[in-house]
Write a structure and sequence with these properties.
The chain is mostly helical. It is 81% helix and 0% strand. The protein has helices at 3-16, 21-34, 39-53, 56-69, 74-86, 90-100, 108-121, 125-137, 142-181.
Length: 182
């Protein structure tokens, strides 16, 4: 197959996504019919399935195929992790995060961010904050670091109400004891 023609279809699909979905799908189908294991076409098809159609099982399939064909394709990891989290496949997401952190050249800050997100979904807030602090350490721009700071603050706010409620209960018990003494 002429790789120029394949690349043209993939590039047309990239250009059309997400604004011209019909054109995107058409070009991806042409690209995948020429080369069924083209990592970029599989990645984009997975992204389309997840973000536009909400079919996480199909998206997982396409992302897995993309990684099977090109393990160092960095773009796939963060989208695949996110789909696994959205689909409540937490153990799979954890396994992928663990593997992604070993891939050379990957954005470790972003992967640690998704680790924090996964832990938050599992309501393990203190570990989520720790993961986000690690993501911040790997941050390479101010916007990312600022976003991480906001996420940490938001998660801390989730923890605080539990402590306040507990302290109110203690106060009310103390008040009751004082009232009984009077």
């Amino acid at each position: 197959m002429d790789t120029n023609l394949l690349n043209n279809y993939v590039l047309k699909a990239i250009d059309a996504y997400p604004y011209e979905l019909e054109e995107t799908v058409e070009n991806l189908n042409y690209a995948l019919s020429y080369e069924s294991n083209n990592a970029y076409a599989l990645y984009l098809m997975g992204q389309l399935q997840a973000e536009q159609l909400g079919d996480y099982e199909k998206a997982k399939h396409y992302f897995a195929e993309a990684l099977a064909n090109k393990m160092d394709f960095h773009k796939v990891y963060d989208k695949y992790i996110l789909v696994l989290i959205w689909n409540d496949d937490y153990q799979e997401a954890q396994n992928l995060i663990d593997f992604a952190l070993t891939v050379k050249g990957i954005d470790k800050g972003l992967i640690w961010y998704y680790q924090g997100m996964l832990l938050e979904y599992q309501t393990v807030y203190k570990k989520a904050i720790k993961a986000l602090k690690t993501a911040k350490a790997f941050g390479y721009n101010r916007d990312f670091i600022s976003h991480i700071d906001n996420e940490i603050s938001r998660i801390k706010d989730k923890i605080k109400p539990k402590k306040k409620k507990a302290s109110k209960k203690k106060k009310s018990k103390k008040d009751k004891k004082k009232k009984k003494k009077k």
